[in-house]
Write a structure and sequence with these properties.
The protein is α/β, with parallel strands linked by helices. The protein has helices at residues 12-22, 42-45, 53-56, 65-68, 83-87, 108-114, 133-138, 148-162, 192-195, 211-222, 253-263, 281-284, 313-327, and strands at residues 3-7, 28-34, 61-62, 73-76, 95-98, 124-125, 142-144, 171-177, 200-201, 228-234, 241-248, 270-272, 290-297, 302-309. The strands form two sheets. Strands 3-2-1-4-5-7-6 form a seven-stranded parallel beta sheet. It has a seven-stranded mixed beta sheet with strand order 9-10-8-11-14-13-12.
């Protein structure tokens, strides 16, 4: 049975990896690592594990190559820019899934513009539902897990980009995320008093770091440059993403529905909802599911594609486990569910 280590297990995505691995029959979690929480018990930092003493009593180690090196599979759930520093010290035999951004982008100039610093390189991109990616993931020892917004928006657009149904330079996205998308670090703008009862935008005007990642994915899929105008919003909820994607198109609603339906016909985690049913974040809570719907406004020749997912599962930990399953040749759905927890 492959052994597993998680760096950054004290964060939200790291905790979800622990939870998902607890129900995975083919992976054995042996190491959890953290920064300032090194030496603490898992149950102290994440009380949701208190009912499982074997898990709750696990102790966080320091985050070093030496503490991670004995595992067959290593998840890096670290802040952006920290994974690259660990990689050189890890054994070549280990398979690694990086939940951070360090190895997602192909263009060094885009990395410098949106993240700053030296570009560490590019790994196989772990969005399995994009044609060709599964084969790359299966043959890779290092996989870059996509960003949460990037997952929602790319999956919403992939079918219509692949089928050439939309204008690639006129894509407008407004997407809202729960507060867990910002991580667990203390920040005034994430205080309950600041968030409760409020909606706010942030990183507007093309400055959000997932912008080049989304454009890169769609450009590689469609073979042409893609430009999106992306406005992210912070919603007063702990988790979830709801993305509204507006595109200009001459295609009919039926053509758009067929494009989406055919593209995801054999996907376990992506559901194109029936007519009249719209995605909502509650329906995907705690699952690896993606819900999609499309509508057409014939007056403006624009269509709206709506996507919902859980930013901590399909947007982070669940997708990372999905990629690990593929890397080890396990069934892709092992240890994961497409059924949300609602209400």
């Amino acid at each position: 049975m492959p052994t597993v280590a998680i760096a950054g297990a004290s964060g939200y995505a790291g905790a979800e990896l622990v939870r998902l691995l607890q129900n995975h029959p083919n992976f054995d979690l042996i190491t959890i690592a953290a920064g300032s929480n090194a030496g603490s018990r898992l149950g102290e930092v994440h009380p949701q594990f208190a009912g499982e003493p074997e898990l709750a009593d696990l102790v966080f180690t320091d985050t070093t190559p030496a503490t991670l090196a004995s595992a067959d599979l290593i998840f890096l759930a670290l802040p952006h820019g920290q994974s690259a520093a660990l990689i050189s010290g890890l054994p070549e035999s280990a398979k690694v899934v990086d939940l951070g951004a360090d190895f997602r982008l192909e263009n060094a100039a885009e990395w410098d513009m949106y993240y700053g610093g030296t570009h560490a390189g590019t790994w196989s991109y772990g969005l399995a539902e994009i044609p060709g990616n599964r084969e790359l993931i299966a043959n890779a020892s290092q996989v870059a897990n996509p960003g949460c917004y990037a997952t929602a928006i790319a999956l919403g657009l992939a079918p219509v980009v692949a089928d050439g149904l939309i204008e690639l330079q006129d894509i407008v996205v407004v997407a809202a995320s729960g507060t867990s998308g910002a991580g667990r670090g203390a920040a005034v703008y994430l205080l309950a008093s600041e968030v409760a009862g409020a909606m706010s935008t942030y990183k507007i005007g093309g400055t959000h770091q997932h912008t080049p990642e989304i454009e890169q994915t769609l450009r590689n899929l469609g073979g042409q440059d893609v430009t999106i105008n992306f406005t992210p919003m912070l919603a007063p909820m702990p988790r979830g993403i709801l993305a509204s994607i507006s595109v200009r198109t001459d295609a009919s609603l039926q053509e758009l529905e067929v494009s989406l339906g055919n593209f995801y016909a054999n996907e376990a985690f992506v559901t194109v909802l029936p007519d009249g049913q719209l995605p909502n974040t509650a329906a995907t809570l705690g699952s690896n599911a993606v819900h999609i719907q499309v509508a057409k406004d014939s007056r403006t020749s624009r269509a709206t594609i709506v996507v919902a997912l859980d930013n901590l599962i399909k947007g982070a930990a669940g997708q990372a486990l999905q990629n690990a399953n593929i890397m080890f040749g396990f069934p892709e759905t092992l240890g994961l569910s497409a059924i949300g927890v609602a209400p």
